[in-house]
């Protein structure tokens, strides 16, 4: 099985911490040269220093705010001008929790911009060179709400579904060029995002976070939360030559919690 990524360049979004950083670490271990994108320079600097460079890869980072479309496009143009990006990991923190009946139009618009439009902007920037290389892996970190909507995540459920449909359409159009587009759907994973959801639920219920976590874990067949490295392992496989015929999929990595087949 060909799992090496030696000679491949990977652009990883939201890579300063959590799932994004775990994916960058795994890609680096497999030989990829990683370019990390996020907003926090201090965390990015620390993240790059932790990446494996056994194959003499030169990893680096760029500070970017995806809400600034012009700056994002300029940065992407400079990265692509230096060489092809073979692997793109679209990853961004999810919208705030809350019922859909209380969501504002601005919340939907902001989430649409942050997730779908940013994914589209990044993909369009790199896909030309991917076509030239005959190799491309676009991996979107989404949510299990793509399969079954999650309670109290109204805006997130809506936007994640749109991203999944966008990704499937992209997969259909780009597959002929040796480019795959797949979604990884993390379940409850030990990240800052999960901590925020737990704290929000505890505050609304007037209970402790331990009680909220226990209720969540009881719904997971594995009886535990996931680790970012476990999400990263699936994303990294999708980036390899071995996954060339996996295209247009949405793969839950959730300990079995999602109730659909």
From TrEMBL:
It comes from Flaviaesturariibacter flavus. InterPro entries: NAD(P)-bd_dom_sf (IPR036291), SDR (IPR050259), SDR_fam (IPR002347). Belongs to the short-chain dehydrogenases/reductases (SDR) family. Transmembrane segments: none annotated. This is SDR family oxidoreductase. Gene3D superfamilies: NAD(P)-binding Rossmann-like Domain.
């Amino acid at each position: 099985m060909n799992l090496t990524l030696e000679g491949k360049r990977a652009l990883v979004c939201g890579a300063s911490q959590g799932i994004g950083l775990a994916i960058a670490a795994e890609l680096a271990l497999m030989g990829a040269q990683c370019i990390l994108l996020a907003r926090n320079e201090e965390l990015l600097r620390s993240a790059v220093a932790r990446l494996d460079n056994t194959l003499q890869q030169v990893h680096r980072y760029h500070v970017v705010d995806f809400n600034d479309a012009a700056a994002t496009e300029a940065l992407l143009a400079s990265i692509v001008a230096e060489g092809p990006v073979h692997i793109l990991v679209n990853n961004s923190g999810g919208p705030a929790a809350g019922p859909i009946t209380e969501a504002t139009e601005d919340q939907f618009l902001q989430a649409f911009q942050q997730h779908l439009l940013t994914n589209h902007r990044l993909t369009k920037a790199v896909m030309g060179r991917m076509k030239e290389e005959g190799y491309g892996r676009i991996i979107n970190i989404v949510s299990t709400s793509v399969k079954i909507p999650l309670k109290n995540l109204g805006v997130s459920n809506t936007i994640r579904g749109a991203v999944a449909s966008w990704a499937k359409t992209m997969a259909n159009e780009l597959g002929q060029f040796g480019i795959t587009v797949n979604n990884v759907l993390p379940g409850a994973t030990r990240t800052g995002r999960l901590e925020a959801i737990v704290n929000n639920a505890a505050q609304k219920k007037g209970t402790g976070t331990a009680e909220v976590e226990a209720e969540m874990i009881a719904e997971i067949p594995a009886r535990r939360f996931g680790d970012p490295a476990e999400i990263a392992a699936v994303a990294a496989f999708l980036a390899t030559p071995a996954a060339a015929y996996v295209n247009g999929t949405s793969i839950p990595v959730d300990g079995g919690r999602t109730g659909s087949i």
